[in-house]
Amino acid sequence: MLKTHTCGDLRKSQLGKNVTLAGWVDRRRDHGGLIFIDLRDREGIVQVVFNPERSKACHEIADQLRSEYVVRVAGVVAERPAGTENPRLATGEIEVIADNTEILNPAKTPPFYINEDVDVEERLALKYRYLDLRRARLKANILLRCRVIKFMRDFLDARGFLDIETPILIKSTPEGARDYLVPSRLQPGKFYALPQSPQQLKQLLMVAGMEKYYQIARCFRDEDTRADRQPEFTQLDLEMSFVDKDDVTALIEALLTDMMAALKPDLRIIKPFPRLTYAQAMSRYGSDKPDLRFGLEIGDISDIATRTEFGVFRSVLATGGVVRGIAAPGCGHYTRGQLEELGRLARSLGAEGLVTISLGATPGSLDTLTSEEVKSVAARFLTLDQVKAISARLGAQKGDLLLIVAGKPDKTATVLGDLRKEMGRRLKLADPNLFAFAYIENFPLLHWNAELDRWESEHHPFTAPWEEDIPLLDTAPAQVRGKHYDIVCNGYEIGGGSIRIHKPELQRQLFRLLGYSDAESEALFGHMLEAFEYGAPPHGGIALGIDRLVMLLAGEETIRAVIAFPKNQSAVDLTVNAPAPVTENQLAELHLCVREE
Ligand code: ASP
Asked: 80-89 as b/e, with b when 16 or more CB fall inside 10 Å?
């Protein structure tokens, strides 16, 4: 190699050693006589000193060095003079005195600072992603990502899982999102689809007897890009035969627990992972991906509200609605302006209105709360005892603020869920050292899409219903529970999976329920139905979103920060400029022509 050590390697124990380093000029300082450069490579930064009295040639070269030049330096490791140590650098006690220097490649002035963690306009950062990736933060994210994936591979390999690749050119089947399509040259008018996930292929691998499969799989979904969504993303995809729900969830729990201990020993997790039913998650947290790093649980106060004289509550309850709320700790002092702002927020989230009850400006026990301290539009319709009962139900103390929403159960749950999340954020309730994994289970197998007038799978059409609910498929599909589990962390869904249907008849019945004629099921999913006729083992699996998981581990807010070459909001890769037009010839070969809109 062109170097003997990395720029992060050298310590006092190597004093006097002759070393050769190669990397990029992070910074250059000319102190009249001496020139210093911070030399950077992937592993770190080390200070190199160019002394004209030691090597005039080296000093002359150092004079030409600019940021991001690629250089190779041979020299000797020396102790830094007392008082000039740099505790922020791992190599900060030493420096390398240059005896030989070679410029391997000069560099243009970069369009943004590489050696400082300053905000860079996204367009520029993505265009010059290869420069952005040189910066400490992104580099650390990419290294973390590698370690996460390596950990997963080792963990699964040790447990007998086979890493099997599945094709990227597959068949378009309705799987929830829009497919990316690839026109076929050899079969005019036909298209491949890029996999939204290897779902069907991994199930076929179970029919093939592979028993334990995993893959770090790239998935493609043509959906609008968001902070936690990219057109292409990476999953840890796995499938196992002869298992039930708990086998799969226990495996993933062990994987994540061990991974956290190995890679993030400073972060705390809740063990064992809490398991909430979908219904519990919705009623207590108003979300199927609750952030469990803080409480602020939603409470139902319908039974208390119905005994009050407050018309708003009573009329909502009379028409089948509910009254629910949360208690924002220490917010009893909020001003009228702040309360109005919360009201606007609640309405923007879909609430008809927000009833606030301030429990006084000073914290204390609920027992000491007086009528004078209670401030609310509803105050004159509520007795002090009723206010206390509501407060107790919501876990409030004196000095807190109750946020109450009345309306249809679903809407109330999601509005309060969003309010809970927002208050959690504003009040910084989440423990930053806690990583709150949890499983959400017992989802309904299907939900009714009123717009399209049909049943849809909550997860995907291959998810098995609970055995005891199978009779309900014909009579009450909404009540059928699916053997589906999601794994959530800090308010994000980081994965999901299920036990699958492995009997062809049940799979056909489900397709029928989803509105496919038998002929349509054959055309779309015939390969699955037929495979199930040849001895399909019971099987199930899961997929973990690696981008989201690494995003959370890295403390980032978008998955773009943990993907080497992400797309922007418009699904454009600015680094290589994709998508891009192609030639008429290329189109002709694919039997395509582009129509002007
Ligand atoms: N294929 C599913 C998904 O991508 C995961 C699974 O069921 O294993 O969400």
From this structure: beeeeeeeeb
| SS3 state of residue 237 | strand
Q: How far is CA 211 from CA 134, 149, 157, 266, in A?
A: 41, 21, 13, 36
Q: At what angle do helices 336-348 and 409-426 cross, to 10 degrees?
A: 130
In 3D, which of 66, 64, 28, 67 has the Cα closest to residue 48?
Answer: 28
238 lines ligand 1 (CB under 6 A): no
- The single-letter code of the amino acid at 533 is E
Q: Which atom of ligand 1 is nearest to the CA of 500?
A: 7
Biggest CA pair distance of the chain: 92
Phi-psi region of 491 (alpha: psi -120 to 50; beta: other; left: phi over 0): left
Taking only the tens place, the pLDDT of each residue in 22-66 is 999 999 999 989 999 999 999 999 999 999 999 999 999 999 999
Which structure tokens are listed for 436? 């709150």
Q: Find the range with the poorest average confidence among 215-229, 287-301, 376-390.
A: 215-229
* 273 DSSP assignment: P
540 lines ligand 1 (CB under 6 A): no
**Amino acid in position 108:** K
Both structure tokens of 541: 């699996």
Q: How far is the C-alpha of 408 from the C-alpha of 453, rounded, in Å? A: 21
- Helix orientation angle between 136-158 and 245-263, rounded to the nearest 10 degrees: 140
> Does residue 542 have its Cβ closer than 6 Å to ligand 1?
yes
Q: How far apart are the first and last CA of the chain?
A: 55
Residues in the chain: 597
Contact partners, residue 431, CB within 8 Å, separation at least 6: 268, 293, 294
Q: Whose CA is nearest to atom 1 of ligand 1?
A: 199
Residue the block writes with tokens 């330096």 = 73
Q: Using the predicted structure, report yes or no on whether residue 176 has a pLDDT greater than 80.
A: no
Tokens of 558: 């978008």
**8 A C-beta contact, residue 392 and residue 366:** yes
Residues 6+ apart with CB under 8 A from 474: none
Residue-wise pLDDT for 464-495, tens only, equals 999 999 999 999 999 999 999 999 999 999 99
In the structure encoding, which two tokens stand for residue 268, read together? 């705390």
CA-closest residue to ligand 1 atom 6:
497
pLDDT at 507 over 80: yes
Q: Take residue 47 and report the two structure tokens written for it.
A: 């200070």
Ligand 1 within 6 A of CB of 496: yes
Q: What share of the chain is helix, strand, coil (3-state, %, to 5)?
A: 35, 25, 40
Whole-Å CA distances, 192 to 181, 522, 582: 6, 18, 19
441 C-alpha to ligand 1 centroid (Å): 15
Euclidean distance between CA atoms 575 and 129, whole angstroms: 6
117, pLDDT greater than 90: no
pTM to 2 decimal places:
0.93
In this structure, what DSSP letter does residue 81 have?
Answer: P
What is the atom index within ligand 1 of the atom nearest the CA of 498? 7
Neighbours of 134 (CB within 10 A): 18
Tokens standing for residue 393 = 């139900």
Closest-CA residue to 155 (of 203, 198, 214):
214
